[in-house]
Amino acid sequence: MGAPKFVDSIEAAVDLVLDTVEGDIVLGIPLGVGKPNPFVNALYRRLRDDPSRRLRIVTALSLQKPVGKTDIERHFLEPLVARVFEDYPDLDYVVDLRAGRLPSNVEVREFFMKTGDYLGNATAQQNYISTNYTFVARDMAVQGMNVIAQAVAARGTGDTMRLSLSSNPDVSAEIIERVHASGRKVMTVGVVNQKMPFMPNGAEVDPGLFDLVVTDPRGTHAVFAPPNNKVSFADYAIGLHASSFVVDGGTLQIGIGSLGDAIAQALIVRDRHGSEYRRILESLTGGDLSGRETGRFDTGLYGCSEMFVNGFLKLIEAGIVRREVYADAVLQRLLNEGRIADATVRPQTLAALLEAGRVRAPLDARDLAFLQRFGVLRAEVRLDGSDLVCGERRCSADLRDAAALDTVCTAMLGPRLLGGVFMHGGFFIGPRDFYERLRTMPPQELAKIDMTRIDFINQLYGDDELKRQQRRRARFMNTTMVVTLLGAAASDALENGQVVSGVGGQYNFVAMSHALPDARLVMMLRSTHATKQGLTSSIVWSYGNVTIPRHLRDIVVTEYGVADLRGQSDGEVVKRLIAVADSRFQDELVHQAQAHGKLEAGYVVPERHRRNLPQTLEDQLQPWAAAGLLPEFPFGTDLTDDEIRIVRALKKLKHASEHPAELLQMTLKSLWEGREAPRPYLERLGLADAHGLRDLLVRRLLANNL
């Protein structure tokens, strides 16, 4: 690792890349918020205007500020986007790709897309790379990558400068290793963004990781910060069910969005309002809480998730995610078994390590380094020949000697184990206050969060024993779009092959849930989804695309309950999934399963599952929402109260526009009642001075739906 070249101009950095790398450019950039947008834009523009050289961009989750599809949406979004996303610069290649004007000499290959944004975009669909997250570094490296660029956080200047890969230590280092190992050259560019949180531990790197470090102030801009989504009653019901499988002292993985927030809030309610939590859960289960976990988190949880999201941060702040793990398999096992009671260093701590053979007697330099690394012995302890020395105290390094052991335990033990981490993440994304909290978190707290490589988080291979000891009682919470009656899940694409998002790390966590003896997979989905053809069941007989095959089925959760499928026969799987389907679709599902010989003739859905309807759910949860335990935005929102009201109304209008009968009924009601929306709302939507028939009708529809 040599000394990097520091460049204070983005354009100069682009010049250096183009002068150093001959021929076509294959650019690798991280997924999500780790992209150095100003540098990427400068390079893209330069090559867009130079058709003699080609540019291939290999990445994932390219983010763009929200853009309205109608005049009303654009009027509404403009001030909101300016306030929330501040000076975040959109990626020019994203704008051109979505507009269908990507130049012929530029190609974009993504392995994970922003959900739904590229449906129908032939260029994006054809260039999508389907891969598991743990294979991303391998599959990016085979693209012929010769330039890697990443946004980094920085501390210090000159010789004292340290860099942090911040949100994305996930794959960059592994890609660099793989490309170098293949004998190829890759030019690495780190672009300093002073607004990126400086994450320590695995994310902190020497500047020498990069060939170029760009310090241009134009590289600094707001981090992409999507506002928190509203958590619906269906989301809360799913989150409540899922939360009841989380075991105190265990491990947790969750994702982004309203379901992740619902799980986090449910866990907080469970910890702080135990009796209310049980009553809510009883209302959803008909009083049957067998097999569910409802107690407080006396030991706490360890977070291990490719996505470090706002829900995890709230669980950390609530003191629920606090179970520390250590980067040594024997030490971790002794803690798990209770042979080391806790993080407080006692004579028993040293005795347990000696008994387990993790350190030897007499201690040598390696043993001392281990004991000091984890805080068992004080940093000032040193070896002097065959003796341990600490200040004025000296004793034999052979701790089989009772007097030596007594001296060490009296004068040389540290106060507390060091190096404990309660959150491992691969990348992060969240609202504005999420990033601000990371930027201002006290160092001793931030040190408990380790952003690290995805090949550590998403699989057991490599350091197998350590990972197994750390990830005890793991609960892997994943979201899917469709589940078949035989237990397969479709999470990434439609039946016709159109990619909605991507596989990401879902398969990795599913595989881990079966490989770890005390782990469970919780696959979550809303029981229905709206299409232009109307309401559709998300539980179906069969589906033309599968992300998770049925032999890996485990726990499936909808808003109407839990289907525990592990080890069950096909017939029983069918029955359990129909029991958590929306009741409006249950009869058809029964008919299809019977027609294919997977359900006995004459089977009738039990009466207790025949009221799986949205109104039933609302009746069950509305009292708890009114009591403040299940708020629409449990972790706050960047939207004002007025904006929330407008969004609700616009969503109703959009839904009605896709269903003619509903739109006609809504129109007649609006004309009959003749309500008017508040003038500030009309001004916000560009409707204040509307005179045309269409705009006047929209004003009435808006007013009627506020």
From TrEMBL:
Transmembrane stretches, by residue range?
none
Instruction: Spell out the SUPFAM superfamilies in the cross-references.
Output: NagB/RpiA/CoA transferase-like
Q: Which domain of life is it from?
A: Bacteria
State the taxonomy lineage. Answer: Bacteria, Pseudomonadati, Pseudomonadota, Betaproteobacteria, Burkholderiales
Keyword Cytoplasm assigned to the entry: answer is: no
Which InterPro entries does the record associate with it?
AcetylCoA_hyd_C (IPR026888), AcetylCoA_hyd_C_sf (IPR038460), ActCoA_hydro (IPR046433), NagB/RpiA_transferase-like (IPR037171)
Span of domain Acetyl-CoA hydrolase/transferase C-terminal: 430-593
Where does the signal peptide begin and end? none
Keywords assigned: Hydrolase
This chain belongs to which protein, by name?
Acetyl-CoA hydrolase
Under the heading Pfam families, the entry gives: AcetylCoA_hyd_C
Q: Which GO terms describe its molecular function?
A: hydrolase activity
